[in-house]
Design brief:
2 copies of one chain form a homodimer. By secondary structure, chain A is of the alpha+beta class. The first copy, chain A, contains 12 helices and 13 strands. Chain A has 3 domains: about 80 residues, Malate/L-lactate/L-sulpholactate dehydrogenase, four-helix barrel (Hypothetical Oxidoreductase Yiak, Chain: A, domain 1), CATH 1.10.1530; about 190 residues, Malate/L-lactate/L-sulpholactate dehydrogenase, NADPH binding domain (Ribosomal Protein S8, Chain: A, domain 1, 2-Layer Sandwich), CATH 3.30.1370; about 45 residues, Wheat Germ Agglutinin (Isolectin 2), domain 1, CATH 3.30.60.50. Chain A is about 45% helix and about 20% strand. A 7-stranded mixed sheet of chain A has the order 2-3-4-12-5-8-9, sandwiched between helices. A two-stranded antiparallel ribbon of chain A has the order 1-13. In chain A, strands 6-7 form a two-stranded antiparallel ribbon. The longest helix of chain A is centred in the N-terminal third of the chain and has 19 residues. The model of chain A has no long low-confidence stretch (mean pLDDT about 95). The interface between A and B is large, with 77 and 77 residues.
Chain lengths: ~325, ~325
C-alpha cells in the first residue's frame, strides 16, 4: 500500500476541517476528529479514518444528526439513562463514558445506559478513556444482525463489541472484542487477496464451518466466538443494552434498514474511591508477569490485550500515522 | 447408565444428612444440599451430585472449612468486599449474590467482590437466584490455570465461568459459560467412549488445534472460546475478580496446589428500582421471539441460554432427578 506517515496532530486537523465544513461546531469537530484519528494512531485501521467518508455519508443522509447532544432521561445514584438522539456515535460514547467516570468518582461505580445512539467506531477508545482517568472501564454496544444464532441459518444476532479496560502503570489491559471470530472488514481484505482465513470464520450455506471469506461475505454467517457460547454472549449483551437503556435491540435496529439507533452501556469503577489502590498495581503486575512468563509454541512472548496498541501508538506518535496516500488526498480535498 | 429417578426433595434430604454427618449445621447443610441437587435438577450433571464426594474430600482435607461464614471487609454504597474465609463455595456464593440483590433493592445496582472462597460448583445457580428475585444477575469466578494463553504452550489462565442472567416471565435467559470451548469433564466422557470432540477442543503438543480429548486431558491445553478472544476475556475476568476483591488471581490459586482460595464477583441490577419494568418484558419477549423465528440448518428451533435448563427442571420435578444407582447407594450409605 502506498502509505504516508502523517503526524497525529496534522491528521486530526485535517479531519476536523472536514467536519467543520459539514457544519459541526468547532470543539465537537475537534473531539470527533481525535476519536477517528486515535483508532489509526493505535493501529486499529479498520475503525478509524478508513470509515470517515462512510460516516460523512451518514451525516449527508441525515442518519447521523451532527449537532445533537445526549439528553438525560432518568437518574438514580450510580445509574443514569440517556437518549443519544441519533447524534454522533463516537461523541455520544465519549460523553457517556465520561459521565460514568464522574459517577464512579462519587459512588465508586457508575453506569450509563444510552439509547438512540450511532456507531461508536473504535470500541477500544472508550476503554482507553477510562484507564487514562485511572478507572476500570467496561462498555458494550449492540449492532445490526450480522451473525446467525447457534443453529440458525440467517443473521439474527449482532457481533456486539465488548470492552474491558483495566488501568496499570506499566501499560493498561484493554480488551476490545467483537463477538465474531473475524470482522467482515478483515474477511474483505482476505477475499481481495484471494486468501482463506487462518481459522474457521463462518458457516457455508449448508451450515458447515468454513474459512472461505467470499462465502461468508455473501451469506453474512460470520462465526460467533466459541460457537454456541459467543452466540449466547452476543444475545445477552444485546438484551442488557436494550433493556437497561430502553432503546432498540438488534431486531429493531434491523428494522431501521441501516445501522442506526443503537443501544450501549458504559460502566466505570474508580479503584481510588473503592480503596483498591493498595494492591491494584502489584496484583496487576503479578498477573501480567505470570502470563508473559509462559512458554510458547513459537518462542515468542505471550501478549496481553492492549499491549500492541500501546506499542503502535508510541511508534506512530514518533513516525506519523500510516494513511494511504489517496485517502489523505481525499481528506485534504474535502477540507478545502 | 443405570439411572434411578429420585424425587428432588428426597435427593436433597439424602445429601443434607451426609453433610450433617460431616459436621455441617442443619440449615447450612440444607442450603448446600439444595445447591448441589439443583444442578442435577436443571440437567447440569457435571457440576452437581457427581462432584459431591470430591467436595467431601475437600472438607476432610480441611481445604474447605465447613462452618466458616463470610466476613465483611469494606463497604461503600453499592459495593462491598467480603472475605469467604475458605468456607463452603456454593454457600458463600449464594450469600454473596443474595447480598448483591439486597444492595440492588436499595441502590438499583449492587456489587459484591468475594475473596478467599472456594469452588461454587454450578455457576448458573447464582444467575437463577437473581432472576428468581426479579433481578438481572451477573457473576464470574476465577479458577486454577487450565488453559494456555493465546500463543502459550502451558496452562496459565483459568476457564473462569461467567454468568449473565436476565429475568423474563416466559422463562429467563441464563447464560452460564466457561471460557473453555469444552469442559474437561466432557472431554473425559468422550475419551472413555473413545470419541473425538465435535469441534476443535484444544491444542496438541505442537500447538495445532485438535479434537482429541486424550491429548488435551494430558497436556491441559483446552481451547479458549474464540481463540485469542476468549484468552483475553479469561484474563480480564481473572483481573477483575482479584483486583476488586483483593484476593488471589489465577497465578496465586496455582500456588495453592489445589483449587482453593478463589476470587469472585457478583452483580445484581434491580429493574424495578431502576424503573425499567415498563418495557422489560415486552422487549425481552420481542428479542427472544425474533431469535426463535430464525430459519435453521436442521429444521429445529433456535434456543436461548437457559431454555433447556427450565425444560429439564420441569421434567425432573415431575419424573425425579436422574442419578446413577451406584452414586445414590453411596449417598445413602454415607448418610447412615
Amino acid at each position: 500500500m502506498d502509505d504516508l506517515n502523517i503526524p497525529f496532530e496534522q491528521l486530526v486537523d485535517g479531519l476536523q476541517k472536514v467536519l467543520e465544513k459539514y457544519g459541526m461546531e468547532e470543539s465537537r469537530a475537534r473531539r470527533c476528529a481525535i476519536l477517528f484519528a486515535q483508532a489509526d494512531l493505535d493501529g486499529v485501521y479498520s475503525h478509524g479514518v478508513n470509515r470517515f467518508f462512510t460516516f460523512l455519508d451518514y451525516i449527508t443522509n441525515d442518519w447521523v444528526k451532527l449537532d445533537r447532544e445526549p439528553e438525560l432521561l432518568s437518574q438514580l445514584g450510580v445509574f443514569e439513562r440517556w437518549d443519544g438522539r441519533f447524534g454522533v456515535g463516537n461523541l455520544n460514547a465519549e460523553f457517556a463514558m465520561g459521565r460514568a467516570i464522574e459517577l464512579s468518582r462519587e459512588f465508586g461505580i457508575g453506569c450509563i445506559a444510552l439509547k438512540n445512539t450511532n456507531h461508536w467506531m473504535r470500541a477500544g477508545n472508550f476503554g482507553w478513556q477510562a484507564v487514562e482517568a485511572g478507572c476500570i472501564g467496561i462498555c458494550f454496544t449492540n449492532t445490526i444482525a450480522n451473525m446467525a444464532a447457534w443453529g440458525g441459518s440467517e443473521p439474527k444476532i449482532g457481533n456486539n463489541p465488548l470492552v474491558v479496560a483495566i488501568p496499570r502503570k506499566e501499560g493498561p489491559v484493554v480488551l476490545d472484542m467483537a463477538m465474531s471470530q473475524f470482522a467482515y472488514g478483515k474477511m474483505s481484505i482476505a477475499e481481495s487477496k484471494n486468501e482463506q482465513m487462518p481459522f474457521a470464520a463462518g458457516f457455508d450455506d449448508k451450515g458447515k464451518l468454513t474459512t472461505d471469506p467470499s462465502t461468508i461475505l455473501k451469506n453474512r454467517l460470520a462465526l460467533p466466538v466459541g460457537l454456541w457460547k459467543g452466540s449466547g454472549l452476543s444475545l445477552v449483551l444485546d438484551m442488557l443494552s436494550a433493556l437497561l437503556s430502553g432503546g432498540n435491540a438488534t431486531n429493531k435496529v434491523n428494522d431501521m434498514g441501516t445501522e442506526i439507533g443503537l443501544s450501549q452501556v458504559f460502566i466505570s469503577i474508580d479503584p481510588d474511591k473503592l480503596a483498591l489502590l493498595e494492591w491494584m498495581d502489584q496484583k496487576a503486575d503479578e498477573i501480567i508477569n505470570d502470563l508473559k512468563s509462559s512458554t510458547s509454541f513459537d518462542g515468542k512472548t505471550v501478549r496481553y490485550p492492549g499491549e500492541s496498541s500501546l506499542e503502535t501508538r508510541n511508534r506512530n506518535l514518533k513516525n506519523g500515522v500510516p494513511i494511504s496516500k489517496s485517502l489523505w488526498e481525499k481528506i485534504q480535498n474535502e477540507a478545502k
